[in-house]
Amino acid sequence: MSFDAHVFAHPHEQVVFCHDRASGLRAIIGLHSTALGPGLGGTRFHPYASEADALADVLALSQGMAYKNALAGLDLGGGKAVIIGDPTTDKTEALLRAYGRFVETLGGRYFTACDVGTFSPDMDVIARETSYVTGRTVEHGGAGDSSVLTAFGVYQGMRASAQHTWGDTSLAGRTVGISGVGKVGRHLVQHLVDEDARVVVTDVSRGALDAITTAHPQVRVVDSTEALVAEPLDVYAPCALGHALSDDVVGTLSARIVCGGANNQLAHDGTAKLLTEKGITYAPDYCVNAGGVIQVADELDPSGFSFERAKARATGIFDTTLAVLERAAAEGVTTAEAADRQAEQRMRDVGRLKNIHLGR
């Protein structure tokens, strides 16, 4: 499929290709929808094998952000950006500032934030060229590490899934397997350990695993995701990159609940049905991992960022998740379909208000 065909096959408002030869910047910004407001979504810095792979990722991620922001009750649309390269070797001040200038050209249609490969100090650098930045450091009035409330939201979604599945929100004594204990996974481990859950983890980074076992000696480590999903789990939490739920993984899983922080967990459109057929409660990823975007969106409040206000809003992920799971059961659809319907309904109902002229 050609680039043009690939872009126009998706219902996106705008896709911007950014190139600055001097700094080496190659980036793509995708805006899926601004029906509810400007698009908000992070910037992923990743060594994609090709521009086609980067494009596919930004299209999927920006659509996910539109639904995530809608379901979270935010007056924000869906956008995302990817920078092609290795963040450990290619990230420079010049490259980040060049990227910031491209964000500025969109005139506020897109607000950027952190994602895989980018961090709050990077947002401070980008902010030297554009004001359309969230997820900045606390020293610069920002929300800081958004993975704190991302993990908190996943934890709330996990409690709601437990209520739906077992009739009790408690995870004490349950075995939870976490794949990926970096930004989000490490905070999720803390919540679960505090509740006396039994936690099993894996990660491709030895350093990330060492940090977990140093802080929580009771946490057990296995050497691969394949080994983790084969464990006798109650809950499986994918917290690394997307497409974690393949047919093979679903076929192997013993867990009754899947609830994790990774984006775009379903390998294909039929995966949600496979999970349902196997009796596994799938908490849609963009529903439960919205805590991070709730956190950085709070920076846009005229009064300035308040962690307490953002955390209170992220607590609502429990109710949102439970509503999605109950809607799926009531309407006889997968939980992924139920979440989509709920997000689309809000985009329609609230987005249409833009047609009411305010005379400004």
Could you write a compact summary of the structure shown?
InterPro entries: Aminoacid_DH-like_N_sf (IPR046346), Glu/Leu/Phe/Val/Trp_DH (IPR006095), Glu/Leu/Phe/Val/Trp_DH_C (IPR006096), Glu/Leu/Phe/Val/Trp_DH_dimer (IPR006097), Glu/Leu/Phe/Val_DH_AS (IPR033524), Glu/Phe/Leu/Val/Trp_DH_bac/arc (IPR016211), NAD(P)-bd_dom_sf (IPR036291). The protein is an alpha/beta fold.
Instruction: Give the DSSP E fraction (strand runs of 2 or more residues).
Output: 5-15%
CATH topology of the largest domain: Rossmann fold
Termini separation: 44 Å
CATH architecture of the largest domain: 3-Layer(aba) Sandwich
Biggest sheet, in brief? 6 strands, mixed
Structural class label: alpha/beta
Keywords: NAD, Oxidoreductase
Pfam family, one: ELFV_dehydrog_N
InterPro entries: Aminoacid_DH-like_N_sf (IPR046346), Glu/Leu/Phe/Val/Trp_DH (IPR006095), Glu/Leu/Phe/Val/Trp_DH_C (IPR006096), Glu/Leu/Phe/Val/Trp_DH_dimer (IPR006097), Glu/Leu/Phe/Val_DH_AS (IPR033524), Glu/Phe/Leu/Val/Trp_DH_bac/arc (IPR016211), NAD(P)-bd_dom_sf (IPR036291)
Family: Belongs to the Glu/Leu/Phe/Val dehydrogenases family.
